[in-house]
Every structure is written in structure tokens, then in C-alpha cells.
Design goal:
It is built from five helices and 15 strands. The protein is of the alpha/beta class. The strands form three sheets. The protein has a seven-stranded mixed β-sheet. A six-stranded mixed β-sheet has the order 8-9-10-11-14-15, with helices on one face. The mean pLDDT is about 90.
Length: about 250
Amino acid sequence: MGASTVGTPEEEVTGMKRALKWLAVVVLVLALAVGAVFYVAFGRNRPIVDGQVLTPGVETVKDGFVSAFLLEAAPGKVALIDCGNDKQGQALLAALQRRGLSPSSVMAIFLTHGHKDHLAGCGLFPDAQVYALEEELPLIADKVRVTHPLRDGEVTGVGLLRVEAFATPGHTPGSAVYLAGGVLFFGDSAAGSKDGTLMPAVRLFSQGPGQNAASLRALAARLQPRAQEVRVLAFAHSGPLNGLQPLTSFAAQ
């Protein structure tokens, strides 16, 4: 009979410990890699402040690493720009509650694009009309029912609120920027840096970085004659910047 290859209990324990150590090393390396990716992508971003009032009637709602925005539309009624990453919508519901409002108070949701961290809470507001650019419908359709497809330049009235849509393809094919209440809402098409400059969409998560940059330059040219209408630039993954100048400065580079 050949010699047995079964190890002693002590050897088996040693082997198990060695395997667990290697597993811990692999997990640590992966965690560091993910952390490095997110730092490169978002490390320069201005911090998001929950509840920050951007202009009268426009409030930032921080949902973890992403923002949605709440806009007064009429007495006791509001609109949303995006609806966050949380299916339970805890941050959005808390923001409504602070105003004495409920989910039925949300008249409209304007989606900047179809990534899931901007759509998760939409199901909490079944009475809301949902708006997005036509080009983005293939990315959104299996997640949220868009009741009003929009075209570039289209203006929508929601109560007393006027919302203008601008096509800014690049991050996704149908990414939209909205102008409402003196605030230009970029979604993920741009971000604000800690040094006060505007940064384009994160390349790693964008389908067309070159197209994104071109879209931002075109948007700057379109809005330059109307600069006085833009008081704040708002972004999904960073804090805001003041005025149109950061966008026009980016376009001039």
C-alpha cells in the first residue's frame, strides 16, 4: 500500500490559516484598488452639503455619494431633479417631511440620465410626471416609466416653475442639463472641484468623454448671452459653484 497523503490535524490548521491570510491579502488589495479608483474619480470634488439652499426654493438632498434636488413648484408642491440611489428614499422623504410635505407633493421628476444612482427612489412618487430626454429612454425604460420625453431646448411648466432642458450627450447618449430657479443642474455631466473650477464628467464612467467636453463647450456658448439667469451650477456628485463663469472658463480652455 502507498503512503497516506492526508496531513495531520496540525498541518491542516496551518494550511487553513495560510489560505485565510492569502484571502485577506486579496481582499485588501481589491479594497485598495477600488478606493484608489474612487479617489481618482471623485477625490477633487467639492463636498456635498445636505439641505444646502442653492437659491430660494431650491435645496440639495444628499443621498450618500450622490445628490438629488428639491424645487418648490407651487404652494405645497415640489419637483425633483433626479431621485437618488436609495430605493427607500430616506433622504428625500426626510427633506419632504421637513417641509411638511409627503410623496404625493412631488409633481414632477426631471432625470438627468439613466444611471441607477439617479433613479432608485422614483418609485416612491407614483403621482409624479417623469421627464427625460428622448435619447435617454433606452437606458431608462426598463427602470422608470418616463411620461414626458423631452427634446433639446424644450421648456416645461410645473406649477410656477419653468424648467428648460439642454441636451449634453457624452456621459450617456441622452444626458440632460436643466435650468430652473436660477440653477443649472448638470447631473453627472460635470462636477465642481475644491478649487472652484468645473470638471467634465468622469471618464471612467462615461460613454463618450470627448463628446461630453464638446457638449459642455456648446452649452457655455448657448448660455453666455443669458449668463444673468444662471446663479448657481449644481452637480450630482459634488457641491455647487457660483455663476456661469466656471462653465465658460472650462469652455475657453
